[in-house]
Amino acid sequence: MESSILKKIFIAIFLILLTSTIFAQNYFIKSEIKNGELKLYFDSDIDAVKYFVIPIEDGYTKFVYDIYGAVLPSGKGISHHSYKDVKSFRIAQNSKDRVRVVIISKLKSLGKHNYRNNILTIPLNGKDSANLKNSNSNRSLKVKEPSSRLSSI
Fold it and tell me: What's the pTM?
């Protein structure tokens, strides 16, 4: 009888560990603006970041960052931030495994973003991020022409 109970407990623990590994996601935790940079924090390492730029009317530019392997929990956002020359900050779940960040700014270039471990750093002042050494910014892809399938947020 006792071995039957132990067997059931072992199976239950195994199933819990298996499902938590299979369905593990990289959740967005928080954001902050510090020293002219927007920092986005996730609960595990960032897989990849792709970005592109779209000039829009009235002299503004839309900077779009797609964070792969990420999930946006309900109620989390970045629209509360403000920064000089930035009209808006937005974040949304773009697909089941991709979070999209959109920054609309008067600047034509924000500088090079980078990500290291679980933090994505996006400069807001037109200068490259201070943490470019030992980062994964070289693995990021810049897309010159956005696909017509891309949705706006």
Answer: 0.73
Write out the two tokens for 64.
């779009």
CA–CA dist 111, 114 (Å, integer): 10
Give me the residue label for tokens 């199976």: 11
The enclosing domain of 54 has a CATH number of 2.60.40
Query: What are 4's two structure tokens?
Result: 């039957």
Kindly give, in sequence order, each residue whose CB lies less than 8 Å from that of residue 137, ignoring residues fewer than 6 positions away. Answer: 112, 113, 114, 115, 129
Is there a contact between 99 and 71 (Cβ–Cβ < 8 Å)? yes
The CA-CA-CA angle for residues 38, 40, 43, to 5°, reads: 165
Range of the domain at 78: 26-143
For the chain, 153 residues long, the average pLDDT of each consecutive 10-residue run is 72 60 75 95 95 91 96 92 94 94 94 94 83 52 48 48
**Residue 19 placed within a domain:** no
pLDDT score recorded for residue 91: 96
Residue 14 CA: distances (Å) to CA of 9, 27, 29, 47, 54 = 9, 23, 28, 26, 48
